[in-house]
Specification:
The chain contains 16 helices and 23 strands. With about 500 residues, the protein is an alpha+beta fold.
Length: about 500
């Protein structure tokens, strides 16, 4: 029997759970994915069923082993990566959720965030957590559950409730309730974790009125977390979980952004651009988030981050709600049929508000520049182009913080496979965009961290040697055109924000 060893990644995305098996050359030998439902009980609310996430996860883990045709004993270790801010509150004894998981895109706590800003709490958040006040993060969502679910606060104060982001929820279930854990990167997205002391912050917990007993134990991103020892997984073969990291940090590690100044952009459901800034947590002066990248080898590395709330989800909107395309890859074909020059039609896909550097929770998606001659091809191309414009929004802020322009951006995620998107990103940034052979960098990052912990890979250098580049996109657009198009985008966003201010009133 072939007893080659593998690393498994359990990838808990926003819309699906996946299990991925990697070999020593960082190649994917098997991947299994299954979507789970999204629920929208009110405008601006986004929920998921934690039990469905668990059952979906269970299925893909077992299926990927069968698909690969391997013996479970060949799995050296597993890593977990996840959709970070989405949070579950559940009974610590029974594992029963008290409410649906509230997704990171949920906007229900925006009014409470406004109250916190009005009370002058912004600097406290920045100083302790590196985050801005926004309902995007877990803390406000936990508070909402405790305040609005009958009996939840009483149970929490009695020490009977846990909260977890999806990483912790899955580890709790995989160990049948024995473990309540997370890593530094996920903890840093809760608004409750001090990124300097690496501890749950008493002041933040008091502000949100969240009992400390609800908090998981936070560990470095690479190391032993727990062990899967269940007969319904791998026939009872023990598989250690030795890596855990938030999805965007995982993609950054998977893109081998190991040195300060290196950055990547992931085009998933959301779009997240991250820059490695090293071991010193220097706050951003340009409204970016300062957060933990990963804990590894006794060190913590920090990152700047800017998030686009709607990236791949805007292409899904073209498919699911507008019926303009049959599948997301079709968007490239149809966009190429547009004969209207760029700059006539703009799509601002603010379905869940505007992320960095605008941070407007009340903004909503808008199409600018429609005229009688515009058609669906023009709208599709403008939607794809919005990913590039939003990337530049963040890149401008990062360049200011870093003190130099970005010359190379590593791109990944589903939309990075779209050549129109990739080329426009390079054009609108005036920088090279580098796409790897495998855009599954989120899964790769968690695998690398898990593998390093058990000696599967010996060093970052060994991992870097496995990296393969698919294509390098060079900017082809004249600078004058680039700046004119971007100025048009900024004008559209500012017009939308003027509308949102009136809607807020």
């Amino acid at each position: 029997m072939n007893m080659e060893e593998y690393i498994m990644t359990i990838d808990e995305g926003t819309t699906s759970a996946r299990a991925v098996l990697f070999n020593k050359d960082s190649e994917i030998i098997a991947i299994c994915a299954k979507e789970f439902a999204q629920y929208y009980p009110q405008p601006g609310w986004v929920e998921q069923d934690p039990k469905e996430i668990w059952l979906t996860t269970k299925e893909v883990i077992n299926r990927v082993v069968l698909q690969a045709g391997i013996d479970p004993r060949q799995i050296k270790a597993a890593g977990i990566t996840n959709q970070r801010e989405t949070v579950v509150v559940y009974d610590k004894n029974t594992g029963e959720p008290v409410y649906n998981a509230i997704g990171w895109a949920d906007r229900r706590t925006a009014p409470y965030c406004d109250e916190l800003k009005a009370a002058g709490k912004e600097q406290m958040f920045i100083d302790k957590t590196g985050l801005l006040i926004d309902g995007y993060f877990s803390g406000t969502e936990i508070k909402w559950i405790l305040d609005n679910v009958p009996g939840a606060r009483e149970k929490a104060e009695a020490g009977d409730l846990y909260f977890s982001n999806i990483d912790g929820w899955i580890m709790y279930k995989l160990t049948e309730g024995k473990c309540h854990l997370t890593d530094y990167s996920n903890a840093s997205r809760t608004q409750l974790f001090n990124i300097h002391t690496l501890e749950w912050d008493d002041d933040m917990l008091e502000l949100f009125n969240i009992p400390k007993s609800m908090c998981p134990t936070a560990l470095p991103s690479s190391g032993h977390f727990c062990t899967i020892e269940r007969k319904d997984f791998f026939g009872g073969v023990a598989v250690p979980i030795t890596g855990c990291i938030g999805d965007q940090q995982s993609a950054t590690f998977g893109q081998c952004c190991f040195e300060p100044g290196m950055c990547k952009m992931t085009y998933g459901t959301a779009g997240c651009m991250l820059m490695n800034i090293g071991e010193e947590p220097i706050p951003s002066k340009n409204d970016l988030l300062l957060t933990i990248g990963w804990g590894l080898d006794g060190k913590v590395e920090y990152i700047y981050e800017g998030t686009v709330y709607n990236a791949g989800s805007s292409i899904q909107w073209l498919r699911d709600e507008m019926d303009m395309i049959d599948s997301t890859p079709d968007s490239e074909y149809y966009a190429a049929k547009s004969e209207l020059p760029r700059g006539y039609v703009y799509v601002v896909p603010a379905f869940s508000g505007l992320g960095a550097p605008w941070y407007d929770s009340y903004a909503r998606a808008t199409i600018f520049g429609l005229h009688r001659g515009a058609n669906k091809y023009d709208v599709i191309k403008a939607t794809l182009d919005s990913l590039g414009y939003q990337t530049r929004d963040i890149a401008n802020a990062m360049a200011k913080d870093a003190g130099s322009p970005i010359k190379l951006l590593r791109i990944d995620g589903g939309a990075a496979n779209n050549n129109i998107v990739a080329q426009f990103v390079a054009d609108i940034l005036g920088a090279d965009a580098e796409r790897p052979v495998s855009v599954e960098t989120t899964a790769a990052g968690a695998a690398y961290l898990a593998g390093l912990a058990v000696g599967f890979w010996k060093s970052k250098e060994e991992i870097l040697a496995c990296r393969k580049i698919d294509r390098l996109f060079h900017p082809e657009m004249p600078e004058e055109e680039r700046e004119e198009l971007y100025a048009g985008w900024v004008n559209c966003v500012e017009s939308l924000m003027t509308w949102s201010k009136k809607a807020k009133q």
